[in-house]
Design a protein that fits this description.
The structure is a single chain. The protein is mainly α and about 220 residues long. It has one domain. The protein is about 50% helix and about 5% strand. It contains nine helices and two strands; from the N terminus they run E-H-H-H-H-H-H-H-H-H-E. The chain has a two-stranded antiparallel ribbon with strand order 1-2. About 35% of the residues are buried.
């Protein structure tokens, strides 16, 4: 896939090693791609796309996520820890990018429908973990966690023969969580660097998650 490079827009931000914070990264993406900007692994209709298009929401969540003594605003502690572990399995480096914190804070200002769907998706992985290994997902070995993810990423979607929704499967829950994790990760400085951002230029079209070596 071709990658278009766009000159960086410099600012005076200092929330990260190179001085570029998540708010600035998203602002640059929006300037380059307009309202139709996209990040790998995220459906246009997914709730995280709406959040990333709102600079005010991004700025508040990014600022709160980096505070010392942070605690979840929407998830409970167990759910937050599960999300952190699950995010790391989906995209290595997610913990360092504070993906679980960023998602939690976005969810805390979201509507009930996305909130309920997110909790249902986390619960689906927890239930599968307990069914298979009799332990919560966050307490499993890495190989056990990856086994569940491999099953989830290759299972069928919950559709009837006519293509209509017919109950969500583990695959559907995986796709929902993957979109949240992808949006939070690739809008961070760590994620943007992985996509090719050098501090001088970044790309407005990106390789897919699978091409980047991530679970798709």
């Amino acid at each position: 896939m071709s990658k278009k490079m766009v000159p960086a827009v410099h600012g005076n931000h200092s929330n990260s090693e190179s001085g570029i914070n998540r708010r600035e990264m998203v602002r640059r993406l929006m300037m380059a791609g307009g309202a139709g900007f996209a990040l790998p692994g995220i459906a246009e209709a997914h709730p995280i796309t709406r959040h990333l298009g709102n600079q005010g929401s991004v700025a508040k969540a990014a600022s709160a996520a980096g505070k010392t003594g942070w605690s979840p605003a929407f998830l409970d502690q167990h759910q937050s820890e599960t999300l952190e572990v699950l995010g790391e399995r989906i995209i290595p480096g997610s913990s360092k990018a504070q993906v679980n914190r960023f998602i939690d804070l976005l969810l805390s200002v979201d509507t009930q429908d996305p909130q309920k769907k997110f909790i249902a998706s986390l619960s689906a992985f927890e239930s599968e973990s307990l069914r298979r290994f009799s332990h919560p997902y966050k307490d499993l070995t890495v190989s056990q966690q990856n086994e569940i993810l491999a099953t989830a990423s290759t299972a069928k979607h919950g559709k009837t023969a006519e293509g209509q929704p017919h109950g969500l499967t583990l695959r559907d829950h995986f796709e929902n969580l993957k979109s949240w994790v992808s949006g939070a990760y690739f809008s961070s400085e760590i994620g943007m660097k992985e996509l090719g951002w050098t501090g001088q230029v970044f790309f407005t079209s990106f390789p897919g998650c699978q091409e980047s070596g991530k679970l798709s």
